[in-house]
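User: I'm putting together a small comparison set for a docking exercise, and I want a reference complex before I start. The sequence is below, and the ligand is beta-D-fructofuranose. Could you produce the 3D structure with the ligand included, as structure tokens?
Assistant: Of course. I'll restate your input first, then give the structure tokens for the complex.
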Amino acid sequence: MAGNRPVAHLAAPRNWINDPNGFIWFDGQYHLYSQHFPYAPLWGRMHWTHATSKDLTVWEHHDIVLFPSKSYDSDGCFSGSAIVKDGQLLFFYTGVDYVEADPENINKVLHDTYVACQVRIASPDGFTFDNLAGKQQVIPPIKNQALGSRYHTRDPKVWEYNGMLYMILGSKVQEPGKETTTPKVLIFRSKDSYEWEFLNELASYGTLGYMWECPDLFCVDGQWMLTMSPMGMLDIPHVHANQAIIAKVGFDNDTGEIDWDGKTYQFVDFGLDYYAGQSTLDKDGRRIHVGWLRMTEALPRCDFMGVYCFPRLVEMKDGIIYTPVHPDICAHFTDVCTEQTLDRSKAFKISATLSEGQQIKVGQYTVTAKAGSIVADRTGMVGEPKMQLISATPALDEALEVEVYVDHCVVEVYVNGGRYAIAHIVNPEALAGELSIPEGASIAQFA
Ligand code: FRU
């Protein structure tokens, strides 16, 4: 089975993973947990699995750390985050209790009704979790349905500022007399990590779908940014309706007010496989983020469903957001080679400046400069349901420099130092054909 597994990207140990959770640098390594269904390569009653890495590239998988054990998380430990507090790790996640399990698949819910609460659990080292004595329900299912949904309030992302803890949650409300729901995020605050008070909220302005998942709010060089994954934001054939976006916003630490028009944003990744991203600080204190690359079907010789993109820096340059590959990952792609000497069983990177019409071709996968944008085409390389086959970045009025990372079943294209990114899941066997690069381009293998 090893053949088509990515070597430099985190993939499910086996069976299923979705969102990245609890991403943190602690005690000399990165800990990255995942939404995980351990019994089959499909979504079901959620656990958290655990991987560690020193360089964000080579990941070691460990045991499951969180599993359903309480009535309030008996049907799953949904997404959440971690912070370091007093030398230990504190985790917050959403516990869910299905109103009615599907009798034909008890790991799934009927009627989309997950009674949802927020749970705290501490760990001294990131490996040891007491699923029986260590869990505490800190925010019970929401009663006030004008504030947020009892069934859909989830994905706590927690950070510390000025001795206080802040939590952002995704939610939605049912408007009286309307069929649709209004998506929102809720901000809570706590002094001691146990008692949380509601501070503020931001609701949709009639845009961006019906429910916001996995919100994250952080500051880079004085600029606040909101990332989240709105459900139902697109209505395009063959493209997943749920997508991840990033926006520059204002945030007031005292009032919890988020200042944003709800209209100015961009996709985190233009491949549109990326979803449910989460940020953290790297070992040097830089903001980084990672996201789940959705797969709609198991790929040949892959015994897993779910891969993450490379962790990326989040930077601001002249008011523009850049998300380049983390430099510790770039540092692995140093073994320079040619088309003839490249070992195609390894991960590799192609670097090139593309002028209009120029193209990089890896098997059936093409990256082309067209009218100021970079267009990545994976037609014929994935099953079509919910996958965008041809992805284009917005047009840029500057030379187009690309870095194309090829790692078995993942291709990532970074344009102009992370100005835009396109990550694609592909059938690895369709990458095996002809490799062609324009003059002046270079290739480096993973080492
Ligand atoms: C996003 C999401 C989260 C939820 C988790 C459940 O993909 O739906 O909102 O916590 O997955 O696995």
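Residues 18-19, 35, 46, 78-79, 94, 154-155, 213-214, 275-276 surround beta-D-fructofuranose (CB under 6 Å). The domain at 332-446 is CATH 2.60.120.560 (Jelly Rolls).
User: Thanks, that's exactly what I needed.
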